[in-house]
Amino acid sequence: MPVTFLADLIQTLINGILQGGVYAAAAVGLSLIFGVSGILNAAHGELVMLGAFATYWLATLYRIDPLLTLPISFGLLFGLGYALQYFVLNRTLGRPLLLSLLVTFGISLVLLNVALRLWSADYRLLRTPYLERSFVVGPLIVPFARLVACVLGVAMVAALSWLLASTRLGRMIRATAQDLEMARMVGVNPRAVYAVTFGLGAGVSGVAGSLVALYAPVEPN
């Protein structure tokens, strides 16, 4: 009995760690947006959902390997996020925080209903033979798809951290977040930086959704 309990406990920890890598990728996008622009993005879940559907349809309709859809998912969601910030959310800057929350909540409803209209509420599962394998170590099972998703999620968080710490764009983003007026004085365009930041956050969230699609059913809700 103690051996079975210990095996179940370790299996639960493994599952939690593997899931945590994907959740970290999804969370860092939300954190980046709020940390830089102060926008509470209520549409974050819908961005993750769109990333999952992007991978599902690209793999299903065009026979693209699911892992190769990740850059496409990032690009599509980056473009959507950039456009939303530049044309809509920039108008909420400097206004009460509740306004951005209400606007993004409205965006979330629009995206959700468009997804339901286009794809219905049915569950869709992406079948990729090589991702359906598992590593078995005694009583423990490590699904290959979840392991890949976790590793890629952590790698994406690390890549975003490197971008913010070591590139000119990252320095512009950090300067805008830390001291808006000083950033303006050195020639940074805050509205453009906010748009790029939202695009990055949306892109990372989209890839997180794509990673979920590797092992879990996809549906609008």
Question: How would you characterize the overall build of this protein?
Answer:
By secondary structure, the chain is mainly alpha-helical. The chain has one domain. It is 72% helix and 4% strand. The protein contains 8 helices and 2 strands, in the order ααααββαααα. A two-stranded antiparallel ribbon has the order 1-2. Strand 1 and strand 2 form a beta hairpin. Helix 1 packs antiparallel against helix 8, helix 2 crosses helix 8 and helix 5 packs antiparallel against helix 8. The chain is globular. The N and C termini lie far apart (39 Å). The relative contact order is 0.23.
Q: pLDDT below 50 for ≥5 consecutive residues: which ranges?
A: none
In spatial order, strands of the major sheet run: 1-2
Total helical segments: 8
N-to-C terminal Cα separation, in Å? Answer: 39 Å
Count of the domains: 1
Shape annotation: globular
- How big a fraction of the residues is strand? under 5%
Major sheet details: 2 strands, antiparallel
Helical amount among residues, as a percent range? over 70%
Helical/strand content category: mainly alpha
- Rg, rounded, reads 19 Å
Number of strands: 2
Helix-strand sequence: HHHHEEHHHH
Overall mean pLDDT stands at 95
Instruction: Please identify the oligomeric state.
Output: single chain
